[in-house]
Automatic annotation (TrEMBL), chains A, B, C, D:
Belongs to the metallo-dependent hydrolases superfamily. Hydantoinase/dihydropyrimidinase family. It comes from Hydrogenophaga laconesensis. Its EC number is 3.5.2.2. InterPro entries: Amidohydro-rel, Hydantoinase/dihydroPyrase, Metal-dep_hydrolase_composite, Metal_Hydrolase, Metallo-dep_Hydrolases_sf. Keywords: Hydrolase, Metal-binding. Its cofactor is Zn(2+). GO terms for molecular function: dihydropyrimidinase activity. It is an enzyme of class 3 (hydrolase). The keyword Transmembrane helix does not apply. This is Dihydropyrimidinase. Gene3D superfamilies: Metal-dependent hydrolases, Urease, subunit C, domain 1. Residues 51-445 form the Amidohydrolase-related domain.
Length: 470, 470, 470, 470
């Protein structure tokens, strides 16, 4: 394993910001100092003018995930390569509990898929769709012995993945006692389901009805409910893809009271808003994700909350489906819902653009500090989900997951140049300042400019510790 | 200047927590690494079993400060020595604008006093008691050219230091434009003054009436007013010694809205409550500080707020007056108000105990994490008041202000063993876990166990940068 | 029909308070004046020293209602007599939709029962347990043509009466458009059901576990959810038996925002608290109602809310079951749950004591004004549920439902002297000031001291108009 | 004194709404009934198609009031005539304490002026500008013996009428103990004064700067402060002319908590907004009142608050100054500030239009119910300020102050037809539905269509009872 010295970089962590040399040895950060001396066998990289960030940690991705009849178009190989090019060196993906099977089976299945393809390190949340005593026992086992300490449950999608409040409450209470955490998709699925059926019955089939049938008040309601269940269970709770102002208000109120409530938002909620839905065109299918895009007012509130720590992290919910049916051999993608919006698979790509757009739209514009950028994209995710200090920071002893970032470099985002299999990018044509130049994963230089040096299978499964202790 | 290698310590910053060696060279942190190699001329200190913290930063101290007829019993010499023994290596004290003189004179006077006595580094806030165009010009000059970027104003003490809302507003607006910040003592002085006069008229002269005439609702009122003035002025605002639940609620509400409002609380509000005032005994004079101690409920809320970042730092408001008249030659101390509580000089010591009691009562009990401890006592104060990254963290290039702290060592706090001139400690007899073992200031080992190696005058004036940018 | 002149009474309405004579003619209030002149055929009653109130309106009673295997022990005959002796001259009871039958059938069945027994006027809410297009059509018909404009739905009791959020939302939206209103029993039934099963599995069978398995946070959650469903449906909503402070907070917040949210509380929540549950004794079964009694703090908040109009009315939720099995031939009463708390029928009597205890505990103590007393017990219920101005006030043209109340008379409440079939009173032994002396229903003197002049069947079904227009 | 029978009217009070005949005898309401029989000497008026309202009560008028160098253009004669034509039969005006004189002198002076000119009944609030022990004693005397139970204090206008927080607090505490109440003009005068001076120094002299120098945040601040002072004093408090959303929010929060806080708003805040200030024209002087007009959003919030009882009444703050200098001999009117906005006397007319515009813009549009209209304009003012039941309702025994109102009649508001001396109306050209047809004051028909039958001096001073007991 090559030892590397990164010279003269500007090292930025969630709290610090200084110039120093950085020594990567045996896959770890070995030393940080002014003018470190190294031998001739050490690879020396000049990082003058570059920022040295800890590699990004994205805790919400869907690689090779199947929802209903559709499977996301990125597998672990393309997805983790795409992540790496975007400066993300760790993902937490999902292991899906098929009805009436064990969460442990789900973990095993997910691991076998990822082991083949992943070029960066990864962990899993289990999506729990059925709860009984045996399942709860297996969840406890997963926390204690399998390094899987978080579980996602759905308050939406009745008939497929939605579980009832009692199942959520039981799970929260159990995992809360054992150092785990429940992540919730919070939307009132029962009412949404009615609204969808009514829309279809009225002949409203175009993609914009996806948004119109998922009003923000129903995300707010479910978020409040999730918080109250967690409060009763005396357990922490995590809200994925928070988008609605109403939901945010409940999170803020709970956090003010010292209740351990956490939430992420996603780049698309920070840069796009519901005004895009103003057409019946099928091209809007690219904006069909759940929750849908919200108001400008909500967008502003999300940015404020990122600053004030009312939101703790930015994840992608990378859940890509191609717009063109058959692209790269993928079928039942967005066009699956051509005639009826409810069959459009929900989700959008984002893994490769997260770091860049948050830097450009957050740090450069002054909305968040550069330290907060690192906290939101790397440190907080690692701390909250039991990966710290192995991941998420630049400190002696941590994994040498390091990104060299050029804050001056300008480029235009495009699906033509990204590494995801997805045939579109929400940020197509966005001109941004800041570019990932080099990426190290455990000391290996896997991205070097446009060159890819990663290999499928080099990524390792991360056994995570207790969550929610952030 | 001796180069020092601190081996095998557990280095803790506001975000990180790892084991490494730490090299202090030329007064700076030069390197951090596993197994750093050094030459024979380097002093090597084994920190096994010890925590390596950044030196504490206390932004609210009153050394050689005169209020009315009384002067605090610690001068810069005793005060900074006391600070150092408590693990604090930077203080921000006060320069007092005498009525109708320039803030610049105040700074010069304060500097000349501190230059003689201080053994650790220091900065100043100017206490502004009169505002006109010339004063505003001088304040701007102080920010831009003198390294003094914060100014304290009083909403209490009419007839002496209280200024009116317009003066506060004008000052906020001006300093906000130039990277400065107003710190407020927020109590409604006019009403308190009435309550005091009424109490005295009724023959209520004992110390407990100090507390009874300063109800928490009046701190809440003034805090709200201060926030609104800041909001109108579009400037940041800082509240010193926040103690009341009502005041905290306003700070929380403002921060939720993204308004740049900051506040400190003090150790005495975190460990004592108003129940101590339940007697007419003069010994209660030691608890005569402003604001007074509050309810248990308020205390709990303060701890929660420290955790949730609704309070950003813990300062001491070290404002010591001896209980025994003539102790160490100090006169007009607490006994000055023997016959009438309103003449008791307000304040209590705390500089030496801050780090220890917050560690013991906060970290050890699980109320706050060890990273948050560092943030509250060193990093946030440094960032908020323009001292970062020179002070407040352990990172390459920062000043080598470092504390070796033994988390296992137990000891009993006492005025008999502290280094302040004050003849009492609020924490007298408190048994705590955790003890400062060694303290470095710019690489100099100034505290080594019970040994004092600091010298008066070695401390340097800190020219501070922009504030409020935290 | 006898014409009656009530002389020299103190007439109190929701707004007025004056002395005058009151003429009741043809079942209506015909005139109010100083020194009204009447002929010799007019019955003249001297009301000197008495208060003349409008007859009480109780919109939440359960007469001859069957829940599971148990039927309330008061039928329309005993129940309405009991009401009249307590100063209540109008009740709104429930018509129960058996699964998959029409609400219209429910109304017809309820009417046929009441027609035989009722001695005062009555209306119905339909309890809707199943919603589909046909049911919605029948609900609309009920509002428009049957004088039934309110419908109760349960967020608790899964497997029997609970409906899902979509059913509630659809119903709200439809009735909101047609001048009707949904009344909600707001508790999160799914989680409560789990808690009950767990309690039983742990061998916790005594009545106090009824309370322990229905935490107030779950009433708060459901109340919030109900409000949000109503907001989305743009319809008014009414919360029955609000008891929890958390629930009240949500109602207050919604009302502050101008959202048409209404709520009642019940006398038992105003006079008793959870401290009664501190035993495993079966005698606590008399306190088994849903929601259970709450904290003292909640009780205080309810009283404040009655004053500030955050709660709009006081109803009884009169739902009596005897403690002694077989009393008056009633079976499957409270003893039904002797071995397992979950089989205790939920509910308590209260119809006869409502006016007296609210007067004594509210008006006499100064918690609410005497006008507010009338508003809470008569005017607001009548206005909110479409009975005004026929019922709920003393004004020319209104029904001559009038109570002569002696505010000085003291008495002790007891099941031995009340007229309900129930063998206990929650207020047994309470010494109160204020007693109903005479009660007129549509001009008929049905209660005269201890004498009963009412007759079963004289009560009339009230076709109600639009609701929620208060 | 003529006895009058009003036949077939629709009588509307704060709670009732019914058709009946109304007998006015000896200046009182003697009887209400269906088909009242009267002798031939009784004047019978047919009110078919008309609404019979209680006469309006306006608790905020400035007749013959002098502020600085300017005196309002309506004296008691023109002002009360104008009131009567608008359906208002009671006013509470102001008695002004000249610096260092007794409030009792102020009352005597005001009484002597009103006694000559008033044609309707009137009371006074004392404007207290200086507080000491003697003044407090006289205030107590005024409550107990002079029928003056409310006192207005200013948080604005430093150097003239502003008093400090201690003076307000002392006054609140004293009057609160004796059944009185402090009314506050809540704006932060110190900061406003600075903003005015700065605006003038920058050459901003046109009327719109009146609005720009009185930002709503400063009304919010002062309102919060006033509430906290009242809370500490355990006394009720009343806010005059509440206009800002921020101020309203504080009132709502206090009322939710059960604190006795009351507030009025004025018609101009309900119908106009700050958009009128968008010019440098001097004609904007007619909109120069304090506080100035606010945002549309604030306007909506005020309407909602009128509905939800967060605001309790609508008063006019009738404070008229002519636009044309010398009109009707009045000088130093609006033109006084032609060259500098700060010299424009603050205020606008409104007494004659209050009832009509609130009916038209509130009741007819469905924003408030017709009962609420009566409550806001007559009943609540009377109750809150100790005039009930003599004034403010239609009930047997109350003063026969009655308005016959034609809800169908349409007319256009104009200064050409109003009875105030003021040469403009804010509502000039507004086309409204609803017109006052006849007005009775204590049984005297003083307004009959366009005919004026009132006489100066017939109005009586009203000795008011306890306030705040609403
Ligand atoms: Zn989701
Ligand atoms: Zn997802
Ligand atoms: Zn202070
Ligand atoms: Zn201080
Ligand atoms: Zn119920
Ligand atoms: Zn019920
Ligand atoms: Zn005013
Ligand atoms: Zn005024």
């Amino acid at each position: 394993m090559t030892t590397t010295l990164i010279r003269h970089g500007r090292i930025v962590t969630a709290v610090d910001d200084y110039h120093a040399d950085l020594l990567l040895e045996d896959g770890k950060i070995a030393a940080i100092g002014r003018h470190l001396q190294v031998g001739p066998d050490v690879r020396v990289i000049d990082a003058s003018g570059l920022i040295v960030f800890p590699g990004g940690v994205d805790v919400h991705t869907h690689l090779e995930n199947t929802f209903g009849e559709s499977t996301t178009c990125d597998d672990f190989e393309s997805g983790t390569k795409s992540a790496a090019f975007g400066g993300t060196t760790t993902v937490i993906d999902f292991a899906f509990q098929n009805q009436n099977t064990s969460p442990l089976d789900a973990i095993a299945r997910a691991q076998s898929k990822a082991a083949v393809g992943a070029s960066i390190d990864y962990g899993f949340h289990v999506i729990v769709t059925h709860v009984d005593d045996a399942v709860l026992g297996d969840m406890r086992h997963a926390i204690r012995h399998e390094g899987v300490s978080s579980f996602k449950m759905f308050m939406a999608y009745p008939g497929t993945v939605m579980v009832d409040d009692a199942a959520i409450f039981r799970s929260m209470r159990m995992v809360g006692e054992h150092g785990g955490m429940i992540a919730l998709h919070a939307e009132n699925g029962t009412v949404i389901d009615l609204l969808i059926k009514e829309a279809l019955a009225q002949g409203h089939t175009s993609p914009k009805y996806h948004a119109l049938t998922r009003p923000s008040i129903l995300e707010g309601e479910a978020t409040h409910r999730g918080i109250k269940l967690a409060e009763l269970a005396q357990a922490p709770v995590y809200f994925v893809h928070l988008s609605a102002k109403e939901a945010l208000a409940h999170v803020i109120e709970a956090r003010d009271a010292g209740i351990p409530v956490f939430a992420e938002t996603c780049p698309h909620y920070l840069f796009f808003d519901e005004s895009v839905y103003d057409s019946d065109d099928f091209s809007l299918a690219k904006y069909v994700m759940s929750p849908p895009l919200r108001s400008r007012e909500a967008q502003d509130a999300l940015w404020t909350a990122l600053k004030t720590d009312d939101l703790q992290l930015v994840s992608t919910d990378h859940c890509p489906f191609c717009m063109k049916e058959g692209h790269m051999g993928k079928v039942r993608q967005k066009m699956h819902g051509k005639d009826v919006f409810s069959r459009i698979p929900n989700g959008a790509p984002g893994l490769e653009t997260r770091m860049t757009v948050i830097y450009d739209g957050g740090v450069r514009t002054g909305r968040i500090s550069i330290n907060r950028f690192v906290e939101l994209t790397a440190t907080a995710p690692a701390k909250l989900f039991g990966l710290f200090p192995q991941k998420g920071t630049i400190a002696v002893g941590s994994d040498a997951d390091v990104v060299l970032f050029d804050p001056q470099a300008e480029h235009v985002i495009s699906a033509h140049t990204h590494h995801s299999h997805c045939d579109y990018s929400l940020f197509e044509g966005h001109h941004v300042h800041g570019k990932v130049r080099k990426v190290f994963s455990r000391g290996d230089l896997i991205v070097d400019g446009d060159q890819w040096h990663g290999t499928p299978g080099r990524g390792r499964f991360l056994r995570r510790g207790e969550v929610g202790g952030y």
